[in-house]
What we know:
single chain; alpha+beta; 8-stranded mixed sheet; 11 helices; 24% strand; elongated
Amino acid sequence: MLRWRMLLNVWACLILGSVVWLASWAEEHKPASDLPQLAKEVQTWLDEDYPYLDALYKHLHAHPELSFQEKETAARLAKEMRGLGFEVTEGVGKTGLVCVLKNGVGPVVMVRTDMDALPIIERTGLPYASRVRVRNAEGREVGVMHACGHDVHMTCWVGTARMLVKLKDRWKGTLVFIAQPAEEIGGGARAMLEDGLFTRFPKPDYALALHCDGFAPYGTVNYTEGVSLANADAVDIIVRGKGGHGAAPHQAIDPIVIAARIILDLQTIASRETDPLDAVVVTVGSIHGGTKHNIIPSEVHLQLTVRTMKDTTRKHVLEAIERIAKAAAQAARAPEPIVRIHPGEFTPALVNDTALTRRTVSALKAVLGEAKVYPRPPVMGAEDFSRYAQAGVPVCMFRIGTVDPERVEAAQKGGRPLPSLHSDEYYPVPEPTIRTGVLAMTSAVLNLLGR
């Protein structure tokens, strides 16, 4: 009898556990019931609003600013948000904005955009292409270009704010819209957090962001649960030698040859020191050395980006870089190289909160349709949006397609490859990319705040 009672208790626990799990699963996957109707209203307003948003987008694209120099960009966004009734605080984290709109008792939802552009000369040929030239920190003249879609992000951010203000009677809670500087150098989120983002202002219950996808067709959204983007480190190597005449290399120690050896040997970290199933990227993005054909220089400077998915792998790779650099110098009887890892430019891996991602995806599918919302595997890019997760806030970043579907199909069939983000030829198609971004983000926020 006792055995039967024990079995019945076990079965009861299993059934109760299943019911609780199913209820939790249903809650995660259930969008607000009126989202499709709200989406229709948003689309109607977008018909009226789109010319304004298109003009804003093209202005932002033509007037890009580098990291921590986004003064004019921030001023324009501040003006937009004040006009909508947000309480705007400027200069958070140097050039960042925090815009707060309270609308009764409810959750606090943060929506983040990044503002900075890249030091790239634009070659898209667009009529609104950037022609901006500035001097960088080293004094070299560089072009400035929104080659990562931050202009789209900002436009969708403003568009979402406009929609949510119009729908103010349909939601309760607090909006915290932040415009973050310096995402491209991994310093903006850290600067805003250190400047009191989560202490001076309402701390979010949820944080959302979107990002352009340079390989996906416009009108679509893709997402990743859990680990989505990689750890990113910036490393400098100063290879030291002994200068001399190019015609008498035996009287010098050539740092260019040593640097070449280091560059090749660095690739063995991924190919021979790391589990093939553990993703690692070590890329030398810059090499500078020498002044003339017949002079062997005394130094060569290398700049590296390092991407890893696991913290243990990151530690091994950074140690391996230093070991390889020193070994190459020792083999050439050269002075020990200087290896500098820049902690200020470290970006931790982005981990999308599973429950928030599933809830958001369910809403997006209800609005855009099942076929237009799909998963994608993690990639080795990096995003300092991850720092908000490390500060204890559930985060979800999804990606919006930006490319003409015919171009995507042609590239997949072996035609001209699509330019990637950070390419001087990358450009999003503004419409319908911006429409999709505004509709998707507005729906995601309403799904968290809607009554």
